[in-house]
Amino acid sequence: MTHSTTVHSPLRLYGRSGEIAIVETLLGRLAQGDGGALVVTAPPGLGRSALLDAAAEAHRTRSGGPVLRATAVPAERRLPHSGLHALLCSAPGPLSVPPERVLRSGITPDALLALLRETGAERPVLVCVDDAHAWDPRSREALGFAARRLGAGGRAAVLIASADETSFAGLPALRLGPLDDEAAACLLERFTGRTPDIDPVVRGELLREAAGNPRLLAGLVGHLTADQLAGRTVLPFPLPGGESVVDAHAAQLEGLPAETRTLLLLAAAAQEHEPEGTGADAGLLLRAGNRAGLGAALLDRALFGPGGIPGVLERTGSRVHFSHRLLGRAVLRHAPPAHRRAAHELLAALLGQVSAHPLPALVQRACAAPAPDAVLASALERAATAPRPHAERAAALTRAALLSTDEAHRAHRFAEAAEHARLAGDTGRARALLARVAQDPGGGSRPVPGSGPAAYTYGMLALCDGPATDAREALLAAAAGLEPHDPARALAALLAAAEAAWASGDAIAYLDALNRIPDRPHDPTVVPYLAGVRAVFAGRMAEGHELLAQCLRAAEADEEPQALLRAGACALVVGEAESACRAGGRALAAVRSRGPEALLAHALEQLAYAELRAGRHARARAHALEGLHAARRTGQSNATTHLHAVLALTASVEGPAEACAAHADTALAGAGPHGLAQAATLATWAVARADLAAGRTGEAAARLAPLVRPGPRHGHFGIRMLALPCYVEAAVLAGHGAEWADELADAVREFAIWTGRTVDPHALAQLARCRALLAPADEAEARYAEALAHHDRAGGDFERARTQLLYGQWLRRRRRTREARGPLRDALVGFERCCARAWVDRATGELRAAGEAVDAPAAETGPVDALTPQQQRVARCVAEGATNREIARRLSVSPRTVDHHLRNIFAALGIRSRTELARVMG
Questions:
Q1: What value does the CA radius of gyration of the chain take, rounded to a whole number of Å?
Q2: Residue 683, Cα to own-chain centre: how many angstroms?
Q3: Where are the alpha helices (DSSP H) in 424-482?
Q4: Distance CA 334, CA 426 (A)
Q5: Where are the beta strands (DSSP E) in 152-265?
Q6: Which of 780, 838, 808 shows the shortest CA–CA distance to 800?
């Protein structure tokens, strides 16, 4: 390409920014007269043909040059030179070597090379060959020979789409992978334009089933009615429409020896009792292959050799995987039913002998069952217990539901399967299984039951991805129905309802949920927690703090993630940020080692917030970013919103201001529809603190006033006091000290009362700082000294540096510039030490104003500096894990514009994926 990084793409290809950038590089060189070649490989349905279409159209648009295009016809594979004949027939004008002669007499590879150069003599020519793996061998050999020699001055480029690159060794290869979730969702929107109100559960099922395969997604959508897409009619099971793609994968297996096909059938069947994507156990397949009479040489080569079965079966350690998951599905679909049942029965017998747990063998028996079987369904349900992973239990309970002969048992098993899917972090699968609970025998749908296990799972899903008030009401209703026969889950529902009320900022509803818990709950460890919270809200602070401290001490011997998370929450209420960090760290470790996956984002969120309170902003950012990825992966949009608010707070300290604003905007956009007052308050506080760092004190005061004042626009009840010192600082620095004197004095008196009730080590220093800001000149200096003395005892660079900055400002504005330099210099060093880049500039400006020369920080240079400012913004968002839609919302542009910038970024940096971009951004 030229030095310009502008990419022209006339066709919209979803999720292929990196691939388009690579193809554009080839086309850019071709436009300058230099040839080249690229082999695009992918399993069927992933968009090889679409990429060739885009390249051909881009070439015509860019240079107006000719395009030779051919698609292989498998029936002509045995006809020598038939592929080249079809390719040359597509030429827009006569050629020096007529296609008919090529078919009759053939063409040598060097003659083909000369012909391509001759064709591109006037205008560069692009050669596009689709499904080249199905060409006749002689055509493949000649094309590969020519393509390897089209270099500088070649004036011809060859773009080859093939199932694999083995026939074109030595040529650059680009392997297409499945579309990511965002790209697949955008493509689904395009396919379902006729049904704009597509049901979220249906959307999730379609995206799951398609697994990023565009052609498969199109087939699935095309076989559903408008009522099915809108969720008014239940989806068929299994979903129809993927047959053509599965058949195309099966075609790759044609011609394999019978023994190899038998081994593949065993491998596909052996995946059925394993977690999705983990493949099959090679040792089990070896025993099954021996029992089936397969040859030792085949088993050794396929299961333990370095190459497996090329293009079909791969080995990773002791696990065997199909090269693409649809290959396994194709094997099962195309196997005769009797052979398929025999494979499952053989595996069930072997697993019954070697497995310590009955569940894997029962799953294999279920796969072999020709009809519903109540006895087998009950056995599966009994076996789907700990210590089996939640995902495995969800799959087993789903099979049990499908085998059930009783409608009530079927609904109950689907509900339990949905709960285990939720715990496994698969919210899409959980919603789909809940929809099966609501399916009536006639194929229609009915509401999810208002109480019981299904209602509990529904409420928990709403808590992580819905309006907080809806989640609270659903969980309260579920608890009422569960209390008589499942008190443990009823207690969990009430605690979750309290969590929903806390997130929405409704203190009365929070207490109401806790007060519904019986005085002697199922889990006695929650007793001090409940009593402590009730005492705090009743104003009995000493009693409440002692009870919450008991809860915290009791958790030191606990390894249960939920108990540790409660302990962390207790520590934050009391003000023991360090204890909250320890409890949060242990909770995170417990979730990582034992699960459930559904708690990972929540554990990271709570730990990040505790680290913020402790003044460890860099650690908070690292855990919040990890939590953001976990929340997106598990479909927890509310956790995503809260984590963006935490990231906004870290950026209000570390900078840049753009990152703070972007995270805050995203948090506020998610908090509004779902009523997440806590996230909204944190995000607003973050923007106000960034305003303070930039010297925009009036804006900061205006943002903070509604958060700390009483009234309908007040902030979250648990954050109000934490934000109050920022409000006092902003109001005084903005010149409102005299105008708002009474209000500010009342606020500081209230903060003093709160300070006496908390053990937060920074509270006393912040109180003294607030009093210094409001004090008359003859008293302020003593107040600043008092604040700094408290900081010495409490530790923490950031808060101490803020006090030193304010003290230095106060001294300078009283023309005591020489004295001001000391605290201002200390403030600058403190901000630099805690990487508070957003505040370093403000301290530097004050120090310069006090007459001290300060060197500007050295500018960092790197590959990212070559990007435009807008491209850098997009790249930074991608590195944080934002999707194109989230980036579009942050930057107030369209997703198409974001996609355009990404293609240019990839081209400028010479990369092809978001993962590489995140690495470049550091």
A1: 33
A2: 21
A3: 427-437, 453-465, 468-482
A4: 29
A5: 156-162, 173-175
A6: 808
751 CB-near residues (< 8 Å, 6+ apart): 721, 724, 725, 766, 767, 770
Under 8 Å between Cβ of 346 and 266? yes
Task: List C-alpha distances in Å: 771 to 732, 737, 783.
Answer: 11, 12, 7
Contact 350, 343 (CB under 8 A): no
**In this predicted structure, what is the pLDDT of residue 421?**
94
Question: Is a pLDDT exceeding 50 seen at residue 6?
Answer: no
For residues 689 and 653, is the Cβ–Cβ distance under 8 A? yes
Residue-wise pLDDT for 163-202, tens only, equals: 887 778 888 999 888 888 888 888 888 888 756 678 887 8
Q: Are 241 and 222 in contact (CB under 8 A)?
A: yes
- Residue of 464, 460, 461, 436 lying closest to 448 (CA atoms): 436
Angle 913-917-920 (CA atoms, 0-180°, nearest 5)? 140
DSSP secondary-structure letter at 872?
H
User: Three-class SS of residue 60?
Assistant: helix
Is the bond preceding residue 441 a cis peptide, omega within 30 degrees? no
DSSP symbol at 41: E
Do residues 561 and 586 make contact, with C-beta atoms less than 8 angstroms apart?
Answer: no
Q: Which residues pair with 141 in a beta bridge?
A: none
Q: How far apart are CA 188 and CA 184, in angstroms?
A: 6
What is the DSSP secondary structure assignment for residue 599, as one 8-state letter?
G
- Rounded mean pLDDT of 439-457? 66
Query: Using one digit for the tens of pLDDT, what is the confidence trace for 360-402?
Result: 999 999 999 999 999 999 999 999 998 889 999 999 999 999 9
Q: Are 879 and 918 in contact (CB under 8 A)?
A: yes
Give the separation between CA 902 and CA 917, rounded to whole angstroms.
Answer: 10
Query: What pLDDT digit, counting tens, does each position of 794-824 carry?
Result: 888 899 999 999 999 899 888 888 888 999 9
